[in-house]
Amino acid sequence: MAHGDLIERLIDALRCLPGVGPRTAQRMTWHLLERNRDAGRRLAAVLADAMDRVGHCRECRTLTEQDLCPVCSSPRRDRSRICVVENPADVARIEAGTDFRGVYFVLMGNLSPLDGIGPGDLGLDQLARRLGVGGVAELVLATGATAEGEATAHYLAEMAREHDVTATRIAQGVPLGGDLEFVDSGTLAHAFSGRREIVL
Amino acid sequence: MAHGDLIERLIDALRCLPGVGPRTAQRMTWHLLERNRDAGRRLAAVLADAMDRVGHCRECRTLTEQDLCPVCSSPRRDRSRICVVENPADVARIEAGTDFRGVYFVLMGNLSPLDGIGPGDLGLDQLARRLGVGGVAELVLATGATAEGEATAHYLAEMAREHDVTATRIAQGVPLGGDLEFVDSGTLAHAFSGRREIVL
């Protein structure tokens, strides 16, 4: 072994980061030790802090260090529209890419009976209570276009119907700028059956 | 903004790692917070520890938490052969890939007058003293086959000659398993001029 234990342990610990293998971890270690110890110290501090203090929003379940996340605590959001997403990153994507002004409900996953993930694990009892209280006009289902995402959306649509709430599903189709040549046949079928009349 | 300040600060702090842009940093943050807080806590602890406690080996300048690195403190290494490398990762590579049993000298860089990096910054005065003491038979120059690596090797070869020490340079040529088709012309020229007689 060419270097001490602590360096080996740092290389090892960095591998908990997704996409970081042994070579990348080694490169990161040399980089921090040789060139950027201050940034390494800052990272260590904020990482320890975040691991201990970040929890879930009481209302929408997204990750936040507060009791209520910034969206749920904002007086300017339309609480009659709830957008259901799989994870906090999806919230960030929708906030950045759309003009949606409603609130969110973050599943932190998808229904997956084979993995033992049922409605309770996704907080759907909590969501049902919100729908039951009334005042919700639309439940936007923005889970992914995967088998699990579709199954979850289907379950949620039935739940919305029970509470007389309109459920909508985000559109599937050809991505913007996408040449048909590069679109898979499943997406193309969705885009085709979901075609709309052009109103001139 | 869809999530609290601490999460943003963690995403930001992770970008000090080489090759980590905003999207990767975000993905790492969700992964640690949602799935692996224990690993995140361990990483924070070992990172803080390493940033504070890892220093340089008194003898060879490599990164180590001890006063002397494991190679320099080993009684089984041949101290008459010194292999000069650019960085600690090169030491690990040579230890893993060769049967070299001598010791190392780690430059932590290369001579680069344009960037203001001179012999003093690479500890070459320290290396010269070691050569001056005597007992060194060979200085293996294993800096990279780049312009800076070559210039540094040339400087070191002259230094070795002044102290009557043999300087050797690691071979350049076609990599093992390398088809000539994929070898650049510079490497091919080196491989050609460095050809050896086949002794049957």
SS field, number of helical segments of chain A: 8
* Uncertain stretches of chain A: none
Number of strands of chain A: 6
Our measurement of the CA-to-CA distance between the termini of chain A, rounded to an integer number of angstroms, reads 73 Å
Q: Output the strand order for the largest sheet of chain A.
A: 4-3-5-6
Query: Can you give the mean pLDDT of chain A?
Result: 89
Query: What series of H and E elements makes up the topology of chain A?
Result: HHHEEHEHEHEHEH
Helix content of chain A: 40-55%
Beta-strand portion of chain A reads 5-15%
Oligomer: homodimer
The main sheet of chain A comes to:
4 strands, parallel
Shape, per Cα inertia axes of chain A: globular
Name the biggest interface.
A-B, 58 and 58 residues
Could you characterize the architecture of this molecule?
The structure is a homodimer of 200-residue chains. Chain A is α/β, with parallel strands linked by helices and 200 residues long. In chain A, 45% of the residues lie in helices and 12% in strands. The first copy, chain A, is built from eight helices and six strands; from the N terminus they run αααββαβαβαβαβα. In chain A, the strands form two sheets. Chain A has a four-stranded parallel beta sheet with strand order 4-3-5-6. In chain A, helix 5 links the parallel strand 3 and strand 4. In chain A, helix 1 packs across helix 2 and helix 2 crosses helix 3. In chain A, 32% of the residues are buried. At the A-B interface, helix 1, helix 2, helix 3, strand 2 and helix 5 of A face helix 1, helix 2, helix 3, strand 2 and helix 5 of B.
